[in-house]
Every structure is written in structure tokens, then in C-alpha cells.
Amino acid sequence: MHSSISSLTKARIAIIGLGYVGLPLAVEFGKKYPTLGFDINKSRVEQLQAGHDSTLEVSDQELQQTEQLSYSHNAADLANCNIYIVTVPTPIDEHKQPDLTPLVKASEMLGKVVTKGDIIIYESTVYPGATEEVCIPVVERVSGLVFNKDFFAGYSPERINPGDKQHRVTNILKVTSGSNAEVAETVDQLYKSIITAGTHKASSIKVAEAAKVIENTQRDVNIALINELSIIFNKLGIDTLEVLEAAGTKWNFLPFRPGLVGGHCIGVDPYYLTHKAQSIGYHPEIILSGRRLNDGMAKHVVSELVKNMLKKRIQVDGAKVLVMGLTFKENCPDIRNTKVVDIVTELKDYNIEVDVVDPWCSGSEAEHEYGLTLTPNPKQSTYDAIVLAVGHDQFKQMGPDKIKTLGKRQHILYDLKYVLPKESVDIRL
Questions:
Q1: pLDDT in tens, 186-207
Q2: SS3 state at 163
Q3: pLDDT by residue (tens digit) across 299-353?
Q4: Distance from first CA to last CA of the chain, Å, rounded?
Q5: Fewer beta carbons under 10 A from the terminal one: N or C of the chain?
Q6: How many helices (H) and strands (E) does the chain have?
Q7: CA-CA distance, 329 to 340, in Å (whole number)?
Q8: DSSP letter string over 337-379?
Q9: Is the CA virtual torsion 284, 288, 289, 290 positive or negative?
């Protein structure tokens, strides 16, 4: 059995979810095919219709170059499409279990509009098997259609790197897959038509799902190792960056740096894989210990800071600390699952007053997500300690002298991101 979309000239594409992943994809497809960008968030749709993207992934100029792209928050508008690409978030809940609610809801909605011959392609990160075990049965139940006979599926994991202007959707190689050989070929050709870097056709949807989830798990475990080493070197009084630079002169040493592991990918994806592994009776050792170590870095950072404040006889109780940066990575407004929040929470446990400054972050979003009020203009000579938590260009441009003017005469400057020269800071991670 095959899809009715034998030729891509008939493709009418819908992108479900217009966040960091969906919008850049919609823009590229909208240059070649009739494309509908769909999001349940009405204000997001209106903002895009007005020609602006608040995530800053797509410039206003780029948004204007897509004549065939329209936007909607009304699910009925999806009915005239025949290829549906799902790019909704896949978060974890407070128990660190996969939360597939957005995927299930998107699948229910598509079950109402999907017709014979249509293809649904999922891009959201999941554990191997989730597309066929969780999403497809929902579409079947709602639509009354039979999978791989009436409608078809594909999986092509997103590889968007928020804030990265070098690695864009078109120049990152794309893994593709389909629910049978013919659909896999159609899905592959569809992506090939917009991705200049080319594609890699996986043998099955499960293989493509597994590939995605291990890309970030590998990074997570590598960073956990470096974080553990930095804790050891710290106790030995050795500078971690100097050690990494020395070891890095060997051709096959991997250039990882210690740090906070947040964001919606590296800090989340491993839990999807470990959840699936546990459900089949295997308890992952390395992946979960890496996760625990990375999740505990905020505690380590704050205890180091407090120790150093005590050494300088700075009173900790009631102290004022400035945290520079809130987003999960530099030069990007994304605050999802940022680990800087854990530092703020940990500092407050010591009864420390915390101000947070971040030129990239929306004040209303910080308030809404974390109940934090940003400090737009920190005053000079105010802080007992300054924590440089995110390496935004604005902070690099300030340089050590300007940053230090924000501290009291006696203060601690803690550089988590190796932004400043070693001799100008009190502690580095």
C-alpha cells in the first residue's frame, strides 16, 4: 500500500507547532510548497502574521520571503493539507518522566483532519517506539483510518540549535524515515528538496528515533564526565580549563567544557531513553549517573561560592548576589529548562538576596515561567558576589573591570563560562 502523494508537486504541508523547530522549517517549506504554519497559541500566530518572530530564530526579512506560507490557530484549516509535520515540545514532568501530552493532543487533532493517502511526520524527540506505540494509535482511534493502509507516517528528528546562526535547518544533515519503503523515500525526497546538507535515510522509524535520543545523551554523558573532573580538580586546587587545554593538544581528545546542562534537549532527552529502558527491565547506569551529576551542578556552584565568601569573611546570611544570565545558553532568548534557576533557588536557601540580569531574556517570560523579576540596570558597588552564569556577548564586551564595578569593594567574582581571563576572577568552574 502506498501514499497518494506520489509526486511532491501535490504536496500541501502543515507544520504543527511554531516554536524554535517548527518555524524555521515552515519558512523553508513555504519557499517551495503551499505551507500552513499551525500553532494553538493565538498570539504567536498573530505575531508571525504581523511579520515578527520573538524567538529570533527567523529574521523579519526572512519571514517576508515565503509567499506560500500562511499561519493559523484554527484546526479546521488543516483539512486541505496532505503532509503533516509535528514539531511540538516533548518535555519531562516533575518526576523526570516523559510528558507526551503535547504529542498526544497533536495526534488527536490530526486524527480529525487526516484523510486517505496522507502522511504524518513527527520531528519531536521521543524514545524508540513512541511514534508507532503512542502517536499512531491515537490517530487511528480518532480518524477510524488504518495505519499503513489509509494513512502513513514518518519520523525525522529535529536538529535545531537555538541561537546558532551557522547551523541552520537547511545546512544540518537530516535523518529521515518512513512507515514503509515507499513512504520513507517520499519523506526523504521531501526533506532533500529543502535541506542543502543532504539526508540520511534510516531503515526504520525506531532507528531514527533512537539516533536522535542518543545524540544528546552522548553530549550529556561527556559533559557529566568533565563536570566531575572539574569538581575533582577544584578540590586539588588545579584550574580545570588549563587541564582541558593541555589535554586538548592530543588530536583525539574531545573538546567538552564543564557547565550547567539545561535546555529542552540535553537535559531532557536522556530521560526519554532511560524511561524506555526501564520499561523493558534494564536499569541504565552511566546515563542516569551522568544526569544526576549534571542536575547537581547548581548545588556544587553555590557551595563553592559560599565557601569562597566565608574565606573572604563576607557575611553569607542576607548577602546580595548578582547572577548574570538566565537563558539556557549564550546569545539566545530561550529559558526552557534553564539550570541557572537552580542556582537562584539554591542561593535563596542560604537567605541570600538574588538579582538576575539578562539582556536576551524577556522579563515577562522570566516572571511567568519562574516567578523571577529581572533587574534591568544593576547598580554599582552593590553586590557581595557576582556569578557569570551565561556567556552572552554583552557580558564579554563589558570585560572584567566593568563587571567588577557592580561588586562591593570586597566581593567574589565567579565565572562559570570561562568568559573572563583567569587572573581577573576569584573562581572558575
A1: 999 999 999 999 999 999 999 9
A2: coil
A3: 999 999 999 999 999 999 999 999 999 999 899 888 888 999 999 999 999 999 9
A4: 57
A5: N
A6: 15, 13
A7: 10
A8: T-THHHHHHHHHHTT-EEEEE-TTS-HHHHHHHH-PPP-SSPP
A9: positive
Three-class SS of residue 14?
Answer: strand
Q: Is 265 a residue of the active site? A: yes
Residue 162 confidence (pLDDT): 77
DSSP β-ladder status, 152-155 and 119-122: parallel
3-class state of residue 243 by DSSP: helix
Average pLDDT, the chain: 93
Supply 354's cell numbers.
538574588
C-alpha cell at 405: 564595578
Which residue is listed with cell 520513507? Answer: 184
The grid coordinates of residue 323 equal: 547572577
pLDDT-wise least confident of 12-26, 152-166, 275-289, 343-357: 152-166
pLDDT given at position 231: 95
**Residue 421: partners with Cβ closer than 8 Å, 6 or more residues away:** 400
Mean pLDDT (whole number) for 83-112: 95
Cβ neighbours of residue 395 under 8 Å, at least 6 residues apart? Answer: 324, 325, 388, 403, 419
Q: Which of 50, 45, 13, 49 is nearest to 29 (CA)?
A: 13
Query: What is the CB neighbour count within 10 angstroms for residue 346?
Result: 19
- Active site residue: 135, 265, 332, 361, which one? 265
Q: Which residues contact 398 (CB under 8 A, 6 or more apart)?
A: none
CA separation for the pair 145, 147 (Å, rounded) = 7
Residue type at position 9: T
Contact between residue 154 and residue 122 where contact means Cβ atoms under 8 Å apart: yes
pLDDT reported for residue 6:
61
